[in-house]
Specification:
The structure is a homotetramer of 378-residue chains. Chain A has helices at residues 16-26, 42-51, 63-72, 88-100, 115-128, 142-152, 172-175, 178-182, 189-192, 197-213, 306-310, 322-337, 350-368, and strands at residues 4-10, 31-37, 81-85, 104-107, 132-134, 159-167, 217-225, 236-243, 248-254, 263-270, 273-278, 285-288, 294-297, 374-375. With 378 residues, the first copy, chain A, is α/β, with parallel strands linked by helices. The first copy, chain A, folds into two domains: 4-138, 3-Layer(aba) Sandwich (Rossmann fold); 142-314 and 350-368, Dihydrodipicolinate Reductase, domain 2. In chain A, strands 13-12-11-10-6-9-8-7-14 form a nine-stranded mixed beta sheet. A five-stranded parallel beta sheet of chain A has the order 2-1-3-4-5. In chain A, helix 1 (16-26) crosses helix 12 and helix 4 (88-100) runs parallel beside helix 5. The longest helix of chain A is centred in the C-terminal third of the chain and has 19 residues, at 350-368. Chain A binds chain B through residues 156, 160-161, 163, 169, 172-173, 176, 221, 223, 225, 227, 236, 238, 240, 248, 250, 252, 254, 256-260, 267, 269-274, 287-290, 292, 294, 371, 373, and chain B through 156, 160-161, 163, 169, 172-173, 176, 221, 223, 225, 227, 236, 238, 240, 248, 250, 252, 254, 256-260, 267, 269-274, 287-290, 292, 294, 371, 373.
């Protein structure tokens, strides 16, 4: 089977996320980067493509140009899947146009800027019958997958408590100065949608809670923090969670936890044990059992599930990181495109992105109504 | 100056907590254990006293006997302070009687079984003008004291986020079996008051949040978990906190976090840095600053505050533990009795116990009213 | 059974080690501190005894005075065991005199200043048939005891590699300045014997290697470091070890590992698994097995040996420390005196101290001869 | 500047190391994989190339074929650098032939099977004036580079102690069974040279000790372990080190440290501080200073050196791993080929591989002569 022809929108010279997607796509020899629109300025786009030694004919002025010209190519040459790495507000129109023109889509998170858009996208995808992935990067870590497998297999029994945390500190140096915060696009609702902290990182935590447990969150109660009255965007918040079957949980997110880098943790406790994972030390999974020694599981060992093992390229003791995690997601997408999907959860679905958008809106609603319970269901 | 004459109520042969208080009282050569009532059965009390080589004349049948006979001794021989280690419901009447008869009191937590009792006790103490300590043991750790000192000195600037967690798993093996939970006194409101999880460990977390920050919590919103409809006692809960000056926080407590032992953590983030501490590794204090290496402070070093250093008996690298923490609290009480108090916060006050009782009642009220905000102020 | 009457030599007002022994002796209500010689200046000794509320009649001018006057007391009142906490060079004459006069002895390490003295002491003890403990404090930690139990029970199979490390940094600020190092008694052979680093901490590592494995070291090859030619005392060294049955090991000790506090670690690998322990985090024992999750054992759990469990006073999650470790050793000694010994290894024996002295001399000999193999056997 | 044309020898379908080199080479868009000899069976080689979508014309039967046909291509198309990933005994002849035909070489370690070969290779390279890298992968980690930078800048002052450890357990399940060990190529001197443990992992530790300190090791004394008399290959060993200026160190390596995965650690202590790093948690660098809090440095922060920062692709808190480490080495090689080298130590040199071969032979010699000092200098 040949490599999958990959296009990219965005992710040019100065993009941080571009390198993550390019390296990830190359990890398992499943993709060939063919072309795309790397920058709104065409010349910059061409320059970048040259650096990557791409065929300049496959570098387009904009998405219209892309769609038109690629469409004229024979199917055997045409780009098959497109990664959308543009600013958030462009995710929706671009993904929609791609779906409508027969492309599979890999979309950075957040999926869209509103829940409404996300629902439209869902309908479009269903009509197009295309593969659509939303890159919740952290779900690709082998020990996150192992956690999902173990919970599914009943290792910790019936779940009775879910606790997710996502703490960063990077907004702190910006938030206390009026000018600085005015200059921060993340704090501008025009550019970032209605939420900063919940939108950017709270959704990761929300997705992870559902991903590892296999449960759906049904109802939430949120208390957000804006710190200054003239700041329109939440930068910290706690959300009480109710899953199906009355299971309770709590989600904490912050961008003013000064000094924290990317402290994303997940803890799930069942009636037979507990599991804990931390993003900053992603190669350790902690299994707690009553009156048993604490167990620390690591990637690559035979005791891990096949799903986890698929995501480890070297023997135990050779730490892999976030590029490898994204690489595993790209592998999952490639397998889906090649109709070789082996594992449920091998990549995050459009539905995960949709639920994330719903979560953002319901969270802000709960807070604005005075910290009351709000149902996720429309 | 001679040793302080100490009496004990409870804490006999089978008591776990008795050894903690006895060892703690002996640590700095400040106390002499003289007598008390170690067991409701007088003979058992005498046997235990014999083992401790105490004078049997100072072992009393009950508190009435204690008060009467000690009262007949000259002041220079009379017991000066009494540790109340009896079951929770006896704390209030015993502490009250002791105060009314001129004794200083060291009381295990919870202070009483109701907020009302606690308020009465407060009045009684004010009238008696006695020293009264409530043994929130964890506040005696050197690195907790260092955390308090650093926050007070502005090391992390203005506080903007407080996060406390107290997770245990020990109720899990009891809660899923109707008979077992009926046989657990902690789950019996008659014996334990209106709350299990919040009452037993949530109060520790509440106290710690106020202790290290020097702030008061003004308002709370609680979501408790009972797991079974016929279980009358909370065994898990999350409480949203509002401190003075609109500072927000969150408190999480659980006794069904299966496999957790005594996972009590405190995180405080200010606009200049963050501080984190974990009870299970009590000799490490983590200081986070933007764009600076993470710093790990340890006991006994010259960079610590005098208050912290008072609580370390050996040079750095010689780990001390929970007995030493309680020893530091006993030292603080001894200094208070000897009118030699050097540090604010050297031992937890009756007011801390009072606020704890208030917290329990307001938390349950918030939950029962449907997870609404409740003010701490009466 | 009454409490054991304890005497102390040394350990007065300014002693760091005095408080460790006093608190340790009080932990299990097994000892009553009766008297001794706390300071060479009698008045200071009396003042200190007053603070401890001891009977001044049991405070003696010197050891001759102690032996003479205690000897006149009826046996039921006489001190039964004496802790020798005086400067190193006094350990030998004092311990000898105590043995010759019928006392059990608890001696701080190093046992003596020469191997020759240690051998004489051994003969004296055998004649006296007395209990004699050498306080290698670290062997009292519950997880060290658990490690010993597990190795004994074959948990890691046949041992094939032993690795002990004891790194400190405190000599670094003294060693580079000629005046400072001249003023440091540890660096004066007159006061400290022929070795500094190996004598002070290398012996701990040596003892621990034999203690947990139950093996004897037969042969050594040492490379010591003196850093300056005019410095007569080693401050760092590596020792290759050969145990019985050709098992190999390595011991590393340093007092110039700048910034290290008391970083004492033990690793033992057998053909069925490995065990690791670190003094600065003494409540964790790591069990490694091929293709199994790492296991972390903690004190107080039912999966621990009875020997380990005897040394834990509170439930899991309540960290105990070095005072508790020494307390366990005092408990072992009390049980021996009361002829109630339950566990092999409950306290370190004179023979451990003797082997330690032998190790020091053989290590220095190996180094001085040009880093050659030297047999431990005389 | 166009991409560098890369060839690969070995690293085919079943190779573990192939994926590491391919992903690493793709990380910074500096290389284009053009062709090579992926497998001794030509058809397998072609199949693998097809999977990678390489031009089959650039897939050669063997190295002779490679050299001949590539040589006929114009220089602007010809492969510029070749990664040698074949079995150890082929490194020497292949690298030599490549050098003699004008190619730059990236060679897996060990460089050769004998020190003699390595010296010949050195001469060949000098004549060819080619870039030659030996992939000591671990030197590419950002925090290893930061350690090197800090030591160079005097952060820990004059070095006085070096301690390196490389512990694995994977030989344990093979060594105790005569048949299994006969079937292990690592234990066959014909295939692996004269040493197993020192050759495979001891050399990594040796290289790291020299790399981070910038010092040369002058003299060694080794004690190796073979465990069974009929086993010709060391599987464990301790080596005493003497660097220039009488600085002492110790290197420990083991493949029978049962349960260890890839536990490679480096500690360097100077008169102003200490630095510690562990391969299994590669994103933490520990800085120890007297009477200062322990500092933990992490990648991507402004406080790191430019050299370290070049090796981090994402902001702090996004853990990178061993693929990224190798990617940094490939970046260093690319910069050298492009004559844009910015940092000393950006990739390991042939001289590092040469010194490694020397170390292996001198270590075995020291052991065989009875654990005596052997000079590294010929």
């Amino acid at each position: 089977m040949g490599k999958i022809r990959l296009g990219i929108l965005g992710g040019g010279e100065e993009s941080l996320i571009g390198i993550l997607h390019r390296v990830a796509s190359s990890m398992f020899d499943k993709y060939e980067l063919v072309g795309g629109v790397f920058d709104p300025e065409h010349q910059k786009s061409l320059n970048f493509a040259k650096k990557l030694q791409l065929n300049p004919n496959r570098v387009y002025k904009d998405l219209d140009d892309f769609v038109q010209k690629e469409g004229q190519l024979p199917e055997s040459e045409r780009i098959q899947v497109v990664s959308v790495l543009t600013p958030n507000f462009l995710h929706f129109p671009m993904a929609k146009q791609l779906l409508e023109n027969g492309y599979n889509v890999i979309c950075e998170k957040p999926l869209t800027t509103t829940y409404e858009e996300a629902k439209i996208l869902k309908q479009t995808q269903e009509k197009a019958n295309a593969i659509f992935a939303v890159t919740y990067t952290y779900t690709g870590y082998p020990m996150v997958r192992q956690m999902k497998s173990m919970i599914k297999n009943g290792e910790i029994g019936k779940i009775q408590k879910v606790d997710v945390q996502y703490y960063q500190g990077w907004i702190n140096p910006l938030i206390h100065d009026k000018e600085k915060r005015a200059a921060t696009w993340r704090l501008d609702p025009e550019k970032s949608g209605i939420s900063c902290c919940i939108g950017d990182i709270g959704t990761h935590a929300f997705n992870m809670a559902e991903y590892v447990t296999g449960l759906e969150i049904h109802e939430i109660l949120a208390d957000l923090n804006y710190l200054y009255e003239d700041n329109p965007m939440d930068i910290d918040g706690t959300v009480l969670l109710r899953f199906s079957e009355k299971i309770k949980g709590v989600l904490r997110a912050s961008q003013i936890a000064t000094g924290e880098e990317n402290n994303f943790t997940v803890k799930v406790y069942g009636d037979k044990g507990g599991l804990k994972w931390e993003q900053e030390n992603p190669n350790y999974l902690y299994l707690l059992k009553e009156d048993k020694p604490l167990q620390v599981l690591k990637p690559g060992h035979v005791y891990n599930s096949d799903f986890s093992l698929e995501g480890t390229k070297l023997p135990p003791g050779h730490p892999e990181g976030i590029f490898d995690s994204m690489g595993n997601i790209y592998l999952g997408i490639a397998n889906a495109i090649n109709k070789e999907t082996k594992f449920e959860g091998a990549y995050p679905l459009l539905n995960d992105g949709l639920r994330g958008m719903n979560f953002i809106e319901k969270t802000v609603a709960s807070h604005k109504k005075g910290n009351v319970w709000v149902k996720m269901k429309d």
